[in-house]
Design a protein that fits this description.
Elements (H helix, E strand, L loop, with lengths): L17 E4 L2 H7 L1 E8 L6 E8 L18 H8 L3 E6 L5 H7 L9 E5 L3 H6 L6 E8 H8 L4 H10 L10 E3 L2 H7 L10 H6 L6
Antiparallel strand pairs: 1-6, 1-7, 2-3, 3-4, 4-6, 5-6
């Protein structure tokens, strides 16, 4: 299923990748079946979920350059893994949850990246508090979160105006998010990594 009300940045359908949800129910509706969940016994808040995705048959549009590139195999594995971990924006022990859910070992010098930036979500009044995790290289994480990087500019923009009232359930990855998920440093200032990589996204 697709949240047709959510922005998709002109990307082709095979690159509509959910990265944030307004609720666990939204994750179940648009991503896949929740196999396990960690719930705070005091508040009842769901802190983390392990999701079995419904992406077994990825429709790789033949005119999308990414699917014809040397990155195609790793792109499938990184964008469409069989299992994903989603965590609440305010949950701090997400790395341990990822490990406890039995996910593949996090490679050395890699971080578990909240693909949708946590501060940006809080600046949106936590409208989409459930965020997808993705292991990325240290340099990718540092580049993305830099003040002069895409996430830094997003935070600065959101802090300067009233929080928008989103009416959709899912936030889909934009070209910068996809660049990070492919484990490519997005860059800073002009975001040269995004500039170069997004050529693979559009027919």
């Amino acid at each position: 299923m697709i949240d047709a009300t959510s922005p998709r940045f002109g990307l082709p359908a095979s690159l509509w990748i959910p990265i944030a949800s307004a609720s666990v129910a939204g994750v179940e509706m648009f991503v896949g079946r929740v196999e396990q969940r960690l719930t705070d016994p005091r508040s009842g808040r769901v802190n983390a979920v392990l999701v079995e995705t419904r992406s077994g048959n990825v429709a790789k549009e033949p005119d999308v350059p990414l699917w014809k590139s040397p990155l195609a195999r790793s792109a499938i594995e990184r964008l469409y893994p069989a299992k994903q971990v989603w965590v609440h924006v305010d949950y701090g022990d997400y790395r341990q949850a990822y490990i406890d859910f039995g996910m593949p070992a996090i490679p050395p010098n890699h971080f578990l990246d909240h693909v949708q930036n946590r501060i940006a979500i809080r600046l949106r009044n936590s409208s989409h508090p459930y965020l997808r995790l993705c292991p990325v290289d240290r340099r990718v994480n540092t580049s993305g979160g830099h003040r002069a990087g895409g996430e830094g500019m997003e935070k600065e923009f959101l802090a300067s105006r009233p929080a928008p009232q989103a009416q959709y359930t899912i936030i889909y990855a934009d070209p910068m998010d996809l660049t990070k998920m492919l484990n490519i440093a997005p860059g800073t200032q002009v975001l040269d990594g995004v500039r170069d990589t997004q050529r693979l996204f559009y027919p």
